Amino acid sequence: MRVAHVLIFPLPIQGPVNCMLKLAELLCLHQEIHVTFLNSEHIQQRLVNCTDVEIRFKKYPNFKFMTIPDGVAEDNPRTGDEVRNVVKGVEDVSSPMLREMLTSGLLTPYSLTCLLVDGIFTFALDIAKEVGIPLLYFDTISPCALWTYLCLPKLIEAGEIPFKGNDLDTLVNNVPGMEGVIRRRDLPSFCRETDLNNPTIQRIIKEGKHIVQAQGLIFNTFEGLEGPILSQFRTLCPNIYSIGPLHIHLKKSLSSPKTSTSNSIWKEDMSCIDWLDEQPKKSVLFVSIGSVATMSKAQFLEIWYGLMNSKTRFLWVQRPGSVIGLEENNDIPMELSKYTKERGCIISWAPQEEVLAHPSIGGFLTHCGWNSTLESIVEGVPMICWPYFVDQQVNSRYVGEVWKLGLDMKDVCDRDIVEKMVREIMEVRKIEFLERGREMRNLAIQSVNEGGSSYKDLDRLVEDIRLMRI
Ligand code: UDP
User: Fold this and answer.
1) Angle ∠(193,198,201) on CA atoms, nearest 5
2) Which of 2, 8, 179, 191 could bridge to 187 as Cys pair (CB 3.0-4.6 Å)?
3) Distances, alpha carbon 377 to alpha carbons 15, 353, 407, 441, in Å
4) What residues have CB less than 8 Å from 260, skipping those under 6 apart?
5) Does residue 283 sit in helix, strand or coil?
6) Which runs of consecutive H residues, i.e. helices, occur in 246-296?
7) Residue 81: predicted pLDDT
8) pTM value?
9) What angle do CA 448, 212, 367 make, to 5 degrees?
10) pLDDT at res. 257
11) Residue 372 buriedness (CB in 10 A; 0-12 / 13-18 / 19+)
12) Closest Cα to residue 350, out of 312, 319, 377?
């Protein structure tokens, strides 16, 4: 039988793994496409411990997991800025192993016909050339953020980076399509570096040069949200597949859309759904900073006081290790604990898609990771954005200024501002934000419905992968 055989290799952190597994499942719905999903050993172990992923994927005879070391010692940190350990580990350790795996024909029963990997894996371009197969990059961050990455050389050439002077509110001129929108503070966090030889800046410049050379570029977004930026991309890489929001695309495509599609690497605490069931409609603010971001203890307390002073109900994901300098929970002022008992719920990891879809949720204080942002958009939940790093600075600007789906709190963490923004979202401008959220939610749903832009792009992607059969 002639089959297409795709090797999918995500960056081994929660967001990209989640996205790529969803794409893998969508591809597996087509029998003539076989998928080998290459996970890091670390991620695979955690996925298996925390979800039913192994059982779930058993129903696809055309799917298999393989694992590879990611080069990060188990006791090395993988969150905060240390997430760079993961990128470096993959480059140094996993990439030579991948090359060996592909050149030695270890992938069976069908030889590989396509590589589909994270956009940050610049090494994949050489490997694909060497093996003689097409390469598709899937960049799981937002196109609006990735577009600023691609414009980095232009920004440097024009002297806009490194910044001259300290004014972060100066508008940026050399990101086509974002004139008048993006200030210095809204550029990706690494743009604040003063040394252009910084390894992150160098890696991003390299990424920009590589992704435009692949056969295609896949995005988890939809035309109704990022149409103008996608048009900018098409000037450099004509073959764009914009197939998101992937989580609703997958749910629509499954014959039993109610079944779990969780790919969490922490155990989800389902008890929060019972707690949400008891709260009034649209009364709860969901608070989460995702899988990588961290905060100081001082910031943690400012947010907590802001929540208490706003008198809002809240569901807060306090991921283990996410608050630097927090010793014990008895470190928390009594008044905060007392308020939380009355109107709050704290958990260590949430079933986030389900939480955001719950009728009691009225807002989301988020770090603006791309998955979280999209998941919030799909449920029409207004956001307070507190970006941590890299792409999140751009996403939060787009949420606040372009899409008008919430408020951007970047670069501050003060209890009075938290309180003010929570009140704006949950009370003062609630109707306005919910209305805008509904409009965008409808566009998201239309895009994955039959005939919608993401539906058509996924169809085209499947067809193009099929044609890559040997
Ligand atoms: N997530 C989750 N439960 C939580 C917090 C996050 O399932 O308690 C999921 C969330 O739904 C999203 C992913 O983790 O799909 C986080 O990805 P994102 O791109 O938002 O941020 P990152 O973690 O990469 O910074």
Assistant:
1) 80
2) 191
3) 16, 11, 14, 6
4) 51, 52, 56
5) coil
6) 246-253, 271-277
7) 81
8) 0.96
9) 55
10) 66
11) buried
12) 319
Measured distance between the N- and C-terminal CA atoms of the chain, rounded to whole angstroms: 10
Q: Which residue in 52, 29, 54 sits closest to 39, CA to CA?
A: 54
Give pLDDT tens digits for 305-325. 999 999 999 999 999 999 998
Q: Is 365 helix (H, G, I), strand (E, B) or coil?
A: strand
* Per-residue pLDDT at 161: 96
- What's the rounded Cα separation, in Å, for the pair 393 and 359? 28
State which of 146, 260, 352, 368 you would mutate to test the pocket of ligand 1, scoring each by most atoms of that ligand within 8 A of its C-beta.
352
With a cut of 0.95, is the ipTM above it? yes
Q: What angle do CA 236, 239, 243 make, to 5 degrees?
A: 120
Whether 327 shows a pLDDT value over 90: the answer reads no
The CA distance from 310 to 196, in Å, is 42
Angle between helices 453-467 and 223-234 (to 10 degrees): 50
| Closest ligand 1 atom to Cα of 372 | 20
Give the H or E element holding residue 353: helix 352-356
Question: 257 vs 177, which has greater pLDDT?
Answer: 177
C-alpha triplet 224, 228, 169: angle, nearest 5°? 110
Mean pLDDT computed over every residue of the chain = 94
Paired strand residues for 240: 217
Cβ–ligand 1 contact at 241 (below 6 Å): no
What's the CA-to-centroid distance between 291 and ligand 1, angstroms? Answer: 6
